[in-house]
Design a protein that fits this description.
The complex is a heterodimer of chains A (121) and B (107).
Chain A: E1 3-7, E2 10-12, E3 17-25, E4 34-39, E5 45-51, E6 58-60, E7 68-73, E8 78-84, E9 92-98, E10 110-111, E11 115-119
Parallel strand pairs in A: 2-11
Antiparallel strand pairs in A: 1-3, 3-8, 4-5, 4-9, 5-6, 7-8, 9-10, 9-11
Chain B: E1 4-7, E2 10-13, E3 19-25, E4 33-38, E5 45-49, E6 53-54, E7 62-67, E8 70-75, E9 84-90, E10 97-98, E11 102-106
Parallel strand pairs in B: 2-11
Antiparallel strand pairs in B: 1-3, 3-8, 4-5, 4-9, 5-6, 7-8, 9-10, 9-11
Amino acid sequence: QVQLVESGGGVVQPGRSLRLSCAASGFTFSTHGMHWVRQAPGKGLQWVAVISYDGNNEYYADSVKGRFTISRDNSKNTLYLQMNSPRAEDTAVYYCAKGPDLHGRWSPDDWGQGTLVTVSS
Amino acid sequence: DIQMTQSPSSVSASVGDRVTITCRASQGIRNDLGWYQQKVGKAPKRLIYAASSLQSGVPSRFSGSGSGTEFTLTISSLQPEDFATYYCLQHNSYPLTFGPGTKVDIK
């Protein structure tokens, strides 16, 4: 069955960097677009970014554009989110989610359990 | 960006009740909409895709309808395990946007 396991969360100071990982198994990772979605404490869901199956296309929410970078290593079945210059408002549980299609143009169907990122000095 | 609204923001209902949640898009999105259920402390779970297609393994009491700018999620007979928060998500254009959520709790 599909498994998505996020890691790399923790406490990070504003302006520093953090990289999240999502290890995928149970499906052919290299043929699916992948998403990051976050949820601030007590708040709703916010889409963050998507990457196509081959890594050639990426799209971002305006709130993270220029600061966060989504990437993937298909040889390792792993999705990444590089968080540069994080702000307090980036504090959230970060979920990776699998798209059912090559480019991530459809609603994500499977989700990981999330990893908590707290931005605080 | 496409804005998504949901109504109501919360609903109190009893087991066996019919519950309907509405999601509206700020512009037409064809049927590019999914519905998700999220329980406290858990990851979201997709219930409906393409506005009206039932995700495999999801009980048939859940149904979705709509196209363009107005969509509904209906739970035909609420069960104890259905108390949760429900979100719609448009994937017609980037950035993808979620509705603010509808919390379904026990009356």
